[in-house]
Amino acid sequence: MTWFSLTVKRWSRIIQFISLFCVCLFLVVSCAPRPQPTTLPSGSLNRLTGDGRITIGTTAKPRTLDPADAYELASLGLVFNMSDRLYTYEPGSTQIKPQLATALPKVSQDGLTYTIPLRQGVVFHDGTRFNAQAMAFTIQRFIQNKGKPSFLLGDIVDSVKTTGEYELSIKLKKPFAAFPSLLAFPGVCAVSPKAYKIGAGEFKPNIFVGTGPYKLAQYGTDSLRFDVFDKYWGEKPANKGVNVQIQTSPVNLFNAFRTGGVDVAYLSLQPDQTQSLEEGGKKGDWQAIAAQGSVVSYLVLNRNQKPLDKAEVRAAIASMVDRPLINERVLLGQADPLYSMIPTTFNVSQPLFKDKYGDANFDRAKQLLTTAGFSKENPAKVQVWYPSSSPTRSLAAQTLKSLVDAKMDGILQFEVAVAEGPAFFKDISRGLYPAALLDWYPDFLDPDNYVQPFLYCEKGSVAKGCEDGGSQTQGSFYYNEAVNKLIDQQRKELNPEARQKIFAEIQNQVTTDVPYVPLWQNKDYVFARNGVSSVQLNPIQILVYQTIKK
Length: 550
Description:
Elements: H1 17-31, H2 44-50, E1 54-58, H3 73-81, E2 87-89, E3 96-98, E4 106-107, E5 113-117, H4 132-144, H5 151-154, E6 157-164, E7 167-172, H6 179-182, E8 214-219, E9 223-228, E10 241-246, H7 250-258, E11 264-265, H8 271-282, E12 287-301, H9 311-320, H10 323-329, E13 335-337, H11 352-356, H12 362-371, E14 380-387, H13 391-407, E15 412-419, H14 421-427, E16 435-440, H15 452-455, E17 457-461, E18 465-469, H16 470-474, H17 481-492, H18 496-513, E19 516-528
Parallel strand pairs: 1-10, 1-11, 14-15, 14-16
Antiparallel strand pairs: 2-3, 4-5, 5-7, 6-7, 8-9, 9-10, 11-19, 12-16, 12-19, 13-19, 17-18
Helix pairs in contact: 1-13, 9-12, 17-18
């Protein structure tokens, strides 16, 4: 899932490799809006620190608080902190554990039916009792109301039944080994049957009534207030409640944190602001907390567009990419180079692109292009597109172009192009872009979510590529029937070791076919004032409010 606003002009030409990097660095460091000190209202620091409540600053503005329609990180992060799901993640791990369930599901021999025992003694924020009927209502509403994330369950779940007052039975349309992880998706959280209705488009974006440790006390355009739910079944929050301040820009968020206007800052700061706050953290001015993320950035290569229809050209591009340089110049070291479409968050990830292509392997790239029939007189020309909503991708595109201009002796030529966000994400699935820079935020934490949405093709052929399926949506139009079968196999396989071997086969084939070139895996940064403790992100990049204290 891409959770994707800044118009970026196309660069008309690049003069030389070294000069571009100098310009890029100068622009990033010197030309970004410079934070200016702000003055807090008198007594505001006392107010923020004296009542036991935590004030969190962010630029992420939620579109909705209705979990059946929430499909952006800004919304899902808030929903997560006010809710419970059947399963949640172990701290610092991608492993799930029961939450409203009392045990992992019992799975039928055919892999289709999941029987889940539920927790007793739980009540919703409005006093309604939680039971199997309420959870069945929640899942049915998630599917039938047709919100943005409804396909996550709608494509998989056949039926939901109560087989006891505190027992749920979910039947799938076809086996799916990662189903329990999908049930940890923040939007699949229990909601009160008295507060919500089932029906297409029946959403309540401005309220939230769940079972979680906080209840919604106030929802405004630039702030939210979460109060502790005194009837919460589990461990009570370590704080007296949370105030969320929605800042209008990264500059304002930077200023608000630096001057003490917020206790915690998370989402989203520019790389130079993050770098500045990191330096302050090293000096002891505040805390800088870094965590490995699960968001991946990559280059899509459209096999239906010349010259990318030739495997040698795709392999050449994979060879000339210089990930460490991109990380240094574009990301200021705030990411990790990525050598598989499956991030290192998962033990099945294998760095096969590093093993096969390496970084900045220009000689091999030129050899591959020569083999494919290209030369200085007949260069391989590729347009690289990116959405205008991403200045990071703009700089990454210019960096890739500069590498090609400086190191490929004219045998490969990149042209950088930009499109407005809505048009970009519509046109990429229509096959209009030869190559494009994208990122991917996982729906749920399982390697399947980095494989099936990118490689699976429901309808296609070797001649035409993918006509309908994940790879068509992503813009690569990749089609490989053997990979389709491997994806189906891993979805059915419940044995972790056997499943890991299948993922290895899939990654090996992707490294050979190169429908995508993995570039970097993000790092996440949270900044907290001194005296604030237990600040942590869960594995899906959500700040956990419940543990924060001061």
